[in-house]
Amino acid sequence: MKFPGRRRHKHYFPVEDKDPLISQFHSSDRLTHNYICGIDQIVVDIEAKVDQAFLDEFQLKRGMSQVIDSTITNALYDRLKRDKLVEYEFAGGTIGNTLHNYSVLADDRSVLLGVMSENINIGSYAYRFLCNTSSRVDLNYLQPVDGPIGRCFTLIDDTGERTFAISAGLMNYLRPESIDKALVQNSSALLISAYLMRTQGDETMTEATMQAVQYANEAGVPVVLTLGTKFLIEQDPTWWAEFVEKYVDILAMNEEEGEAITGFSDPLLAADKALDWVDLVICTAGARGMFMAGYVEESFKRETEHPLLPGAISEFNRYEYSRAMRKSECENPIRMYTHSAPYMGGPDAIKNTNGAGDCALAAVLHDLSANVYHKLNVPNSAKHEQNAFTYSSLAQISKYANRASYEVLVQHSPRLSRGLPEREDSLEQAYWD
What is the C-alpha separation between 339 and 272, in angstroms, rounded? Predict the structure, then answer.
């Protein structure tokens, strides 16, 4: 996909050198750049293949995400190392993954807020996190702490079921005063996850997150929430629904999380229900692909050129060629939906599903950020006669997100190491012509 932004040019001559008589009338030709920011529990992901006996030994519940203390953490890690069960160690965190992938896709700045060990030793978990994070992710606003960051063990059994064991370290001690108001309010989006609400005792992460959300809401900056895990939402779905309606503009979830918060197992119906609370919904549905839902002003609606699809909502993709808008910006808001099947039918062999949803969300954020970028630099463009949320149509964004997540499914790391190709080998030359 092509977005407005820096491009590689092959001009030999200095084409940007202006005539001195003309340049005085154009004193400011520099492009204005924007960024997105996010808050995360800074962790390193440790992936290992285990059996049920291993989970029972450490009293871990299969398929769930659970917090473990430092004693169990050290024993668990020692056992994994001793038996050579560790397969990969990566920089992790759902928001950290999303921001990294966004910066790789957009080749542009994002800002990560959280904590980082003040003293970093080579080979330590903090060192691994820094080494595996894109240089385009701004880490200058991390709050230093005197102690370890978090560790997340992803334990995969023979069926592919993932069990998460999280050692918090000091990752939940981000303080509200560490949130820079101007940084949040000048960003194009604020990204948070449901995990940030799971704190206890004297941990301050939840208060810091709510401070940032308040700043974003005051300035009209879109708040993007990714739900993270169905088990967390199932504990109090009513509270989460009220939280989303009050504070969130864009909601990202998979079909299980969607069912937990809306009560609908069908991802299309879950996305439709979520539109009662937010302006834009992303719902990944595994082998079924991805569904998106949003609003458009009736006068700006565009009908699809694709066949109308059956589903829980009849002909739901009718207006998928429309660009998404905030409901509050519409005089006569119309709900629109789209669906994209997995890219090329999905990979022949899925290496790891961890991070695929984060990468899909990164692609959506790239489109949203591209719209802000274009509006800042070409404010008089006819494209902005419609006060849209996104740069592209809902259908195009969905395809882009699906394509990006494919790259994560065919590799072990939840983080992209490179952007998408300019041209796809899977498409005939006639497509590009």
Answer: 13
Gap between the Cα atoms of 261 and 274, Å rounded = 9
Q: What is the pTM of this model?
A: 0.85
Neighbours of 71 (CB within 10 A): 9
Structure tokens at 119: 């003293």
Residue 151 annotated as binding?
A: no
Which residue, chain included where needed, has tokens 């169905």? 230
Closest CA to 125 of 156, 97, 101, 90: 90
For residue range 253-293, list pLDDT tens digits in order: 999 999 999 999 999 999 999 999 999 999 998 888 899 99
The reply, when asked if residue 93 is annotated as ligand binding, is yes
- Euclidean distance between CA atoms 153 and 125, whole angstroms: 13
195: three-class secondary structure by DSSP? helix
94 is in an annotated binding site: yes
287 is in an annotated binding site: yes
H-only helix segments in 186-249: 205-219, 230-234, 237-247
Instruction: Please give the full DSSP string across 279-341, using - where no structure is assigned.
Output: SEEEEE-GGG-EEEEEEEEGGG----SSPPPPSSSTTTTTTTTSBPB-GGG-SSEEEEEEEEP
Q: Please tell me whether 360 is known to bind a ligand.
A: no
The reply to whether 186 sits in an annotated binding site is: no
Residue with tokens 């009209």: 220
Q: Helices then strands (H, E): number in the chain?
A: 14, 16
User: Which H/E stretch holds residue 105?
Assistant: helix 94-106
| Structural domains of the chain ordered from first start | 222-419 (3.40.1190.20)
The annotation status of 95 as a binding-site residue, yes or no, is: yes
